[in-house]
């Protein structure tokens, strides 16, 4: 935006034509700085064919994956969602800070009631200080399996990427999961029986399984590159329940951002993403002109748990050469499915690009256990979990239950009692050997809609401690409405005396979804500067279904800029 000396403007404006031109130009550049983008999302069924079978899936605008939205830092998004499907739906804008606009965050029964079939709701929010790769997805039951898309935030006009090499091209890769069944039926059956849901039948890249699956080669995704040029590849793990390794045959990847936060660049041959996480990499086409497989497969950390042990592929194809499309692509070497050292080596290399504004002192020190559990089967029922039990999951021995008559944010805003309580424990009710041999008396959590209240402006530290109840597992934990610094991670039980001294308080990575290591812990810090109700949950959808979640109430601060906006007039009612 242009700035003018006001005294000069007053003298110039004695000549009216020049005055009008000046203010027109000033207004033009004002508009160029920030734009409002309007989108219509029609949630509807569409018939698609995958793995030799035709299925009706739920989509946005008939697209699978859904439309990619591109904005700039400072822009406003207005998305009108029309629900023409037979299921309730909400849309979550994963990673968007939603400063004072919690009504637009999207998790069902947390910040809004669902959009019923035939209903509409308009999400409106402004991007504030964020650049990079995020995404949007349904946040209602398991609709996220097919209702998702990329949300790309470019730098402001006149700014550029802070990368060592400015890319000439960009490509977005959405990793997903595919079931030869209706995903809603899959999770409903699991809820009914108490067993784990059926695993997926394939992984996908931009909605396509790739060459290694039946009836899939014709539609394998092709990413074109030109020799010697550098491309920015935006990788999003949109899978419902699986962490994934990702690589490109014979090519190095320079990591430059995660979760829409820039990082110190580093080079690797493989990256690992949990569901909900994004990674931006630079790729230079410096290999002999040919065709190379882009590939992803599971990182499955839970011992003896079934998982989809297949590999999805796309093709990196050099285009400014005589490369034949019939040439068989080179297949990369992917880590073993249980290669925790490789996963750890990747996450522990992440650093912020400069000294970070991580809180040096802490007002709220919280300790949350995260893990699975088993509940006894109700009297008169037959359950198909281990030894006739039902699977469950919890934080601090509380299995989170969504309300059904109000959203939590509406109840909080209107002062409605009986919807939730604010007695979520700041630490486990009982200390135990979290990653050791846990007594069976601790395997069955209590249930409730219990929240934790944070004062506006407080500095918060949360130790996320995995447990070995039933099994240890990597848990990707997502916090709505916030980015946070990952100041430490490790294996075993967190030890405040020894592990705190190892915290990185200089340049820790900023994320919105952190992978709690299998049989280990991660520690995050942030400032509670965004009023509203904010969900924290495991982004393995089977785990949030079982209750691995909680939520924070962040009270209003002082003044308009620290206060939650009023609810929209078209906010859905329960």
From TrEMBL:
<keyword id="KW-0439">Lignin degradation</keyword>
<dbReference type="InterPro" id="IPR034289">
    <property type="entry name" value="CuRO_3_LCC"/>
</dbReference>
<dbReference type="GO" id="GO:0048046">
    <property type="term" value="C:apoplast"/>
</dbReference>
<dbReference type="Pfam" id="PF00394">
    <property type="entry name" value="Cu-oxidase"/>
</dbReference>
<keyword id="KW-0479">Metal-binding</keyword>
<keyword id="KW-0732">Signal</keyword>
<dbReference type="GO" id="GO:0005507">
    <property type="term" value="F:copper ion binding"/>
</dbReference>
<dbReference type="InterPro" id="IPR002355">
    <property type="entry name" value="Cu_oxidase_Cu_BS"/>
</dbReference>
<comment type="function">
    <text>Lignin degradation and detoxification of lignin-derived products.</text>
</comment>
<keyword id="KW-0052">Apoplast</keyword>
<feature type="domain" description="Plastocyanin-like">
    <location>
        <begin position="423"/>
        <end position="556"/>
    </location>
</feature>
<dbReference type="InterPro" id="IPR008972">
    <property type="entry name" value="Cupredoxin"/>
</dbReference>
<dbReference type="GO" id="GO:0046274">
    <property type="term" value="P:lignin catabolic process"/>
</dbReference>
<dbReference type="InterPro" id="IPR001117">
    <property type="entry name" value="Cu-oxidase_2nd"/>
</dbReference>
<dbReference type="InterPro" id="IPR045087">
    <property type="entry name" value="Cu-oxidase_fam"/>
</dbReference>
<feature type="signal peptide">
    <location>
        <begin position="1"/>
        <end position="34"/>
    </location>
</feature>
<keyword id="KW-0964">Secreted</keyword>
<keyword id="KW-0186">Copper</keyword>
<keyword id="KW-0560">Oxidoreductase</keyword>
<comment type="similarity">
    <text>Belongs to the multicopper oxidase family.</text>
</comment>
<dbReference type="InterPro" id="IPR033138">
    <property type="entry name" value="Cu_oxidase_CS"/>
</dbReference>
<dbReference type="InterPro" id="IPR034288">
    <property type="entry name" value="CuRO_1_LCC"/>
</dbReference>
<dbReference type="InterPro" id="IPR034285">
    <property type="entry name" value="CuRO_2_LCC"/>
</dbReference>
<protein>
    <recommendedName>
        <fullName>Laccase</fullName>
        <ecNumber>1.10.3.2</ecNumber>
    </recommendedName>
</protein>
<dbReference type="Pfam" id="PF07732">
    <property type="entry name" value="Cu-oxidase_3"/>
</dbReference>
<dbReference type="InterPro" id="IPR011706">
    <property type="entry name" value="Cu-oxidase_C"/>
</dbReference>
<dbReference type="GO" id="GO:0052716">
    <property type="term" value="F:hydroquinone:oxygen oxidoreductase activity"/>
</dbReference>
<keyword id="KW-0677">Repeat</keyword>
<feature type="domain" description="Plastocyanin-like">
    <location>
        <begin position="43"/>
        <end position="157"/>
    </location>
</feature>
<dbReference type="Pfam" id="PF07731">
    <property type="entry name" value="Cu-oxidase_2"/>
</dbReference>
<feature type="domain" description="Plastocyanin-like">
    <location>
        <begin position="171"/>
        <end position="320"/>
    </location>
</feature>
<dbReference type="InterPro" id="IPR011707">
    <property type="entry name" value="Cu-oxidase-like_N"/>
</dbReference>
<dbReference type="InterPro" id="IPR017761">
    <property type="entry name" value="Laccase"/>
</dbReference>
């Amino acid at each position: 935006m242009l700035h003018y000396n006001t005294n000069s403007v007053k003298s110039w404006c004695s000549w009216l034509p020049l005055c009008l031109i000046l203010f027109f130009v000033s207004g033009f550049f004002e508009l160029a700085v920030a734009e409002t983008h309007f989108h219509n999302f029609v949630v509807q069924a569409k018939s698609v064919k995958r793995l030799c079978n035709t299925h009706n899936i739920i989509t946005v605008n008939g697209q699978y994956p859904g439309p990619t939205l591109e904005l700039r830092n400072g822009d406003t998004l207005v998305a009108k969602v029309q629900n023409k499907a037979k299921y309730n739906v909400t849309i979550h804008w994963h990673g968007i800070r939603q400063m004072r606009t919690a009504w637009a965050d999207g998790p069902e029964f947390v910040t809004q009631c669902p959009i019923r079939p035939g209903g509409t709701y308009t999400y409106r929010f402004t991007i504030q200080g964020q650049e990079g790769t995020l995404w949007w997805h349904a946040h209602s039951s398991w609709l996220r399996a097919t209702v998702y898309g990329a949300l790309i935030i470019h730098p402001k006009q006149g700014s550029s990427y802070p990368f060592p090499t400015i890319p000439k091209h960009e490509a977005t890769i959405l990793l997903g999961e595919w079931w030869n069944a209706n995903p809603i039926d899959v999770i409903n059956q699991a809820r009914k029986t108490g067993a784990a849901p059926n695993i997926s039948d394939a992984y996908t890249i931009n909605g396509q399984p790739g060459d290694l699956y039946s009836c899939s080669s014709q539609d394998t995704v092709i990413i074109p590159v030109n020799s010697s040029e550098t491309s920015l590849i935006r990788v999003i793990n949109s899978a419902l329940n699986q962490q994934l390794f990702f690589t490109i045959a014979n090519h190095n990847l320079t990591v430059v951002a995660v979760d829409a936060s820039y990082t110190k660049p580093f080079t690797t041959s493989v990256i690992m993403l949990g569901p909900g996480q994004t990674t931006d990499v630079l790729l230079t086409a410096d290999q002999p002109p040919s065709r190379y497989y882009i590939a992803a497969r599971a990182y499955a950390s839970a011992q003896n748990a079934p998982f989809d042990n297949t590999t999805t592929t796309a093709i990196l194809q050099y285009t400014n050469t005589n490369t034949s499309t019939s040439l068989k692509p080179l297949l990369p070497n992917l880590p073993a499915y249980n290669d925790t050292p490789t996963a750890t080596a990747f996450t522990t290399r992440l650093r912020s690009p400069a000294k970070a504004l991580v809180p040096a002192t802490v007002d709220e020190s919280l300790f949350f256990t995260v893990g699975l559990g088993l509940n006894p089967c109700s009297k008169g029922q037959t359950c198909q979990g281990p030894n006739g039990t039902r699977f469950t999951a919890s934080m601090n021995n509380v299995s989170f239950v969504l309300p059904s008559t109000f959203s939590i944010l509406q109840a909080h805003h209107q002062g409605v009692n009986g919807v939730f309580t604010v007695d979520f424990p700041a630490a486990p009710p009982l200390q135990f050997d979290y990653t050791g041999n846990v007594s069976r008396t601790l395997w069955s959590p209590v249930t409730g809609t219990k929240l934790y209240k944070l004062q506006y402006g407080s500095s918060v530290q949360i130790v996320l401690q995995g447990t070995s109840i039933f099994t240890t597992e990597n848990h990707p934990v997502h916090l709505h409405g916030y980015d946070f610094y990952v100041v430490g991670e490790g294996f075993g039980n967190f030890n405040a005396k020894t592990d705190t001294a190892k915290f990185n308080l200089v340049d820790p990575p900023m994320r919105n979804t952190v992978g709690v290591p299998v049989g280990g812990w991660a520690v995050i810090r942030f400032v509670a500067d965004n009023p509203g109700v904010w969900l924290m949950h495991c982004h393995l959808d089977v785990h949030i279904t079982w209750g691995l979640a909680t939520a924070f109430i962040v009270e209003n601060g002082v003044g308009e800029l620290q206060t939650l906006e009023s609810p929209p007039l078209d906010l859905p009612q329960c």
